[in-house]
Amino acid sequence: MISYGKTDIGMVRSVNQDSIFFSDKDIGNLPNLYIVADGMGGHQAGDYASSHAVSWFVDYIKNCQYVNPITILKTGIAKVNDMLLEQASKHKELKGMGTTFVTAVMAEDKMYVANIGDSRLYVMGEEARQVTLDHSLVEELIRTGQLDRRKVRFHPEKNIITRALGTGNEAVPDFFEIDLRQNEKVLLCTDGLTNMIEDDEIRDIVMQKLFLDKICDQLIERANYYGGKDNIGVVVIEQDLNEV
Prior knowledge:
- By secondary structure, this protein is of the alpha+beta class.
- It has one domain: PPM-type phosphatase domain (Phosphatase 2c, domain 1, 4-Layer Sandwich), CATH 3.60.40.
- Helices cover 31% and strands 26% of the residues.
- The chain has helices spanning 43-63, 69-90, 137-143, 191-194, 199-206, 212-225, and strands at 2-8, 18-23, 33-40, 98-99, 101-107, 110-116, 120-124, 128-130, 174-179, 185-189, 232-238.
- The strands form two sheets. Strands 2, 3, 4, 5, 6 and 9 form a six-stranded antiparallel sheet that branches. Strands 1-11-10-7-8 form a five-stranded antiparallel sheet.
- It starts with a strand and ends in a 6-residue tail after the last strand.
């Protein structure tokens, strides 16, 4: 696999609360690892939540003795949730913090994904396929038939999250196992991207035959062009043709 990632403060916010990690090489017993997190809370709390969740998760995996990818991701997320709650209980300035978290690993011919919150993972090919499901009030309204998906982008309660790391005694992520086809790319991103750009336009940018750093730059530039109302975090992954 080949990957690249980048975050940007956007055009409105004064602090960047998005954090990412990407490695195409072994991390502990995993052959690679990709993470995007979007912090919430006060300025310091949101930044602390996302950046520490990512770093603690990576440190956990480096020393984890489990072999099964889903077990590694699941136990790592639980560990990070406990650590965030512990720090929030000790430091009043961190009280109420939390973070979204989406992570993926490619192992043999499978992609294993875990997410909690509304940061997303897409598989990009002939179309943009959203793999993860948002843990948000708006998504719940859509699922129960109370809201039309076409009206989501400008809904006043768009940013209300129903699940996140650090906000409850038990973190409940979703897990997915995906077959990745040749020539498909993978995008992990925060809602600072998806709230600004339609999925089809994101797909058109990601599927260009450009170096991945240029693709990340274009995604961020386009989100900022449309207003950049939030921080933007992206990680793009493609298959290494030398390994296929």
